[in-house]
Design goal:
Blueprint (H helix, E strand, L loop, with lengths): L8 H10 L17 E5 L14 E5 H9 L9 H12 L17 E3 L5 E3 L3
Antiparallel strand pairs: 1-2, 3-4
Bound molecules: zinc ion.
């Protein structure tokens, strides 16, 4: 597990300057009042480092899209629609294992507690 260094105001300022004051995801400059978050451009879980060079400033909404995927689409921002279009162009991503009783599961749990194949 990579140790994550503290995000000090100095460090944030350095990273922001290195990125020209722009969101590394949507490449739009930050405007006054934008909520800025600092994000590992390559996730630590995927081998990214915790160095400043791997951290980019991004809009809170852009970050939410990465973290929450299509759930963020409910917020209705155009940027999510653009990102979704790009994502769809790349093809479907792997779906998580379906849990029994979930809406997409072929199994259905009846009120009497029995688990049965849906439609039987
Ligand atoms: Zn952005």
């Amino acid at each position: 597990m990579t140790e994550r260094k503290a995000m000090t105001p100095d460090r944030k300022a350095r990273i922001l300057i290195a990125h020209d004051g722009k969101c590394w995801r949507c490449k739009e400059p930050f405007k006054h009042g934008d909520k800025i978050e600092f994000d590992h451009m390559q996730a630590i879980a995927r081998g990214g480092s915790d160095d400043d060079s791997n951290i980019g400033p991004c809009h809170a909404l852009c970050h939410a899209l990465k973290t929450h995927g299509t759930a963020a689409l409910r917020l209705g921002a155009d940027i999510f629609e653009i990102a979704k279009t790009k994502r769809l162009a790349k093809g479907p991503k792997e779906t998580k294992a379906k849990l029994p009783g979930g809406k997409q599961s072929k199994w259905i749990k009846k009120l009497n507690g029995k688990t049965e194949l849906r439609g039987e």
